[in-house]
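Before surveying the methods themselves, it helps to consider a single example record, giving the amino acid sequence and backbone structure tokens:
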Amino acid sequence: MENFKFKESPFKTLISFHKVIESLEQIALSSIDFRSNYAKGLLKEVNAKPELREGIDNIGFIQENEALIKYLLADLFPTALTQNEIKAVTIPFQNITFNYTERFKKIINNAGREINMNIRDFDEHQFYAMSCAIILNDYYNLKIDFGKPLFYDIPDENGVMRHYRILYNADFVEIYPTDSFKHLTEDEINELVDNYDNTALWKEKFPPNSWIFKGFVIVSLVDVTVENAVSNLKTYLLNPEFKNTNNKENSNTIFRSVFKIPDLKLGFTMYNQEEDTFEKPIFNNESMFSFILLDEKESDCKNALCGCTYENLIENKAIFVIPDTEAFAKQKQNTLFGEKLIRQNIKSFLLAPIIKENKLLGVLELASSQVRALNSINANKLELIMPFLEDTIVSSIEDMQNQIEAIIQKEYTTIHPSVYWKFKREAKNYFQNNSISKEYSLKEIVFKEVFPLYGQIDIKGSSEHRNETLKTDIKNQLIRILNILEQIKSNSNLLIIEQRKYEIQQLIEEIKAPLKTDTEQQIHHFIENEIHPILNSLQTEKEVSEKIENYFASLDAKSGMYYHARKDFDETLAVINKKLAAILDSKQIEAQNIYPHYFERFKTDGVEHNLYIGEAIAPNLPFDKIFLSNLRLWQLQTICEMELEHQRIKNELPYLLEVTSLILVFSTPISIRFRMDEKRFDVDGSYNARYEVVKKRIDKANIKDTNKRITETGKITIVYSHSQEETEYLKYIKFLQYKKILQPKIERFEVEDLQGISGLKVLRVQVMQNENNHKSYTYQELLNELN
């Protein structure tokens, strides 16, 4: 039939009413006169149209004989039920329907446009395969369950999408093969059943038009809008991408279907119990707009809501409905919150607490521009939805908390991936044993026989620079104040101004000497309490008002002090640390490929790092000293690259700072232990403590019998104890000299005796100013060069 949506079908379709006509013929033989006479009269009309019995393949015939067909089907479509039942005649799975009940007609008319009766998510393959399945069940007596739920989606007069379940009655259908059909064997049938998705196979076994479909089907619709919307909501919420989607209309459409409110809008606000505040959802979901907060990121709950709303939501954890926001806002205690809703064109509003285990997690918000569209009656529909929302919100909050924990671990208490396995194993032991006895105590995490590597790039003279910038800012602030006071021409407060000028001049002289511990605090107190009140009172003086205004604008908003030289210093220090740490972190990824090892770095006045390598950290990998050699060569090259980076950027920064570089060589393996109280690794045992003592004291040490530091700008200082360490590092230095990374000259000297430490020696070599040479070399490449 040309009007069918799916043109290709195993059936040649003939719409026929022969079974109804046969039933009428039986009634015509009845002894009950009024029934018999009615059937005879109708049969007289029907027999004049033989197509009604033999089969119709032209939809135009049905339209021309609409009234007669209606009478013919009157017993199946009783007038008394026409306003209640949603029923019509159809051909299964196709888009042709006719002989509608009045309620069905009303649904179609209310849609506001001519609609195609297309089944949701139903395509040509499904149509063909399911049509063939009907034949298998009817003709071959199989019992294939192919009846998946089918739905029509039809908008109502308000544009709200309604959902209807399709039910077919096929009592008035006959199916039989044409002369050209081929009988299927059991193997062929099994092949079809095992290959549902193979359209070509279905068409091969059931060629188009090889079977006759004669009769008609009655389709009945059941309004399942609410159930379908709840099902869609579950699917939507269970989608792993839900928290990261921005499909606002999807969620709004679902809720509109449930509540039958065409302009319903959905919002959500999180609740922070610790601080009693409302917060915008952290997960990236555009549908999670907050009508309570609007553009605010967070708000105190009592300020965001009026008293009665707060009591209902937060204290009683009950649904709160505002059926008429304008009437609500007229009550004095509700004005602020009510007017906020009115500004958003909200005429009725519903707030529903999301609760899990008696804990308030957040508030679901429903808003409409219609008065009383939301009310205490339809609020009960939330009982269908809230369990799914609660589970989803709990899951989202748990995900958020896990991410926060990950950030805390990454930024504050990192457990390095190389040793994470041991922490995980111990945590697993704790979990498994505590679930049985509750007496298991966490064991300390210790790694024995590991080789330490330590290096640092330190800001040279950082303490002196910091003090100088402090003195510069104080001096410049005092001079600027003095210049303002000296321009005062008014006689008012002349004596006190002269007194303050004298005190300022004394302070300027005082800061030329080294600063005392409390000097900055005293001067700040003096300016705040003695000078600023005077300047505020002089802002009406025309000759100085602009200067005073500019002075206050130049002060730091937090400290109220001059923060210019110090700002340049702090920014320079931050940039240097960031750049050098980035190189170290990037290179560390390469270093882990040499052999897994523990790594940590610290940013203070410069960047320092610790590395520990040994079989204890990677017990599944065999350890060899060659890995240690590779890592030492890597460390030396990385320090060279960090030095070069500083040389590249130093002249572009607002404050000139130099750096010094140092590597400590320690060839005796040590043990490290994770300190639970400090959440970090430290050396374990008194013998191993010597390594930590050397680390803390060496960077400020002098060359023996001189007052010169062992570190020097532009040079890498390598501190060691034993001759074999010197031999090893000389190989690295000479190799990097050959590669034009280090300069030819090598300095050797001893370190002055430190408290409890003696016999340390130094190799010092300058980095070549060659920015293009950032290639990393392995220990094997070094050996190849030597050979």
